[in-house]
Specification:
- InterPro entries: DtrJ-like.
- Pfam families: DtrJ-like (PF14348).
- Keywords: Membrane, Transmembrane, Transmembrane helix.
- This protein is an all-alpha fold.
- It folds into two domains: 29-146; 147-234, no CATH class.
- It is built from eight helices and no strands.
- The protein has helices at residues 2-50, 59-75, 85-102, 106-111, 119-146, 148-171, 178-201, 208-228.
- The radius of gyration is 23 Å and the shape is elongated.
Length: 234
């Protein structure tokens, strides 16, 4: 009797695991955004302190923010998700700016008293840099949302290609490797999440396509490998 209940218990465990993963996914993305903002601010502050950037003070963060917004304005004029990507991005970034910095009074205090000296001026410089970095990261988040169909397409292509390879292996003399399947399956989610985390935390401006296209290709490749190496017989 225990043997008969074992397959049902395993199936129920898999369903529970899948539901739990889907429920945790939005919170995971929020955690990635928060961690990325924190890492970006820390990197920017360390760069200001050690003079890594050619611009002084918060100018580097400000220029990087403008560059990211420029990519959105010039390169992403169309989207499958929204009709007006630039307006969508401006609405989200402006709303976050109002709630995080304007309503809290941080923006007004950081921008007031430009003739202040000493440690107060240093604090204001770092606060301004933190504000610009936060807005830059949020702009990149909008870019990731707008380019999410790219990852969906890469996953679909990889899945279909993997199914074809699996059928060829089933009807041929291909060998079955659980080692490849399990390791490729484990790499799918880390590649997806790590790609977002690295892109959001970069302290310099980079064209989204230079990073997102290789990341999407690797994401689709892992799905293709995991699907093609799935066991022959269910």
């Amino acid at each position: 009797m225990a043997r008969d209940d074992a397959p049902a218990q395993r199936a129920e465990k898999k369903r529970s695991g899948l539901i739990g993963t889907l429920l945790k996914f939005p919170f995971t993305l929020i955690a990635i955004v928060v961690v990325s903002i924190f890492c970006s601010i820390v990197i920017e502050w360390v760069g200001i302190y050690f003079g890594w950037f050619s611009q002084t003070g918060s100018d580097h963060a400000y220029q990087t923010m403008l560059s990211e917004m420029g990519y959105l304005d010039s390169q992403f004029t169309r989207s499958l998700l929204v009709s007006a990507p630039m307006e969508f991005a401006n609405r989200i970034v402006d709303t976050c700016y109002q709630w995080l910095f304007v309503k809290s009074g941080i923006a007004a205090w950081a921008e007031s008293g430009s003739d202040s000296e000493g440690w107060i001026d240093v604090i204001k410089t770092y606060l301004q840099a933190g504000m610009y970095v936060t807005l830059m990261t949020l702009t990149r988040c909008v870019l990731l949302i707008l380019t999410s169909p790219l990852f969906i397409l890469a996953a679909l292509v990889g899945f279909i290609d993997g199914l074809v390879s699996r059928d060829l292996r089933r009807f041929g003399a291909g060998r079955e490797s659980a080692f490849i399947y399990h390791h490729a399956k484990r790499m799918v989610t880390p590649i997806f999440l790590a790609g977002w985390l690295i892109y959001l935390s970069l302290p310099f401006s980079i064209h989204p396509n230079l990073f997102l296209l290789p990341c999407a290709m690797l994401f689709g490749l892992m799905i293709a490998i995991a699907t093609s190496s799935f066991k022959k017989y269910l």
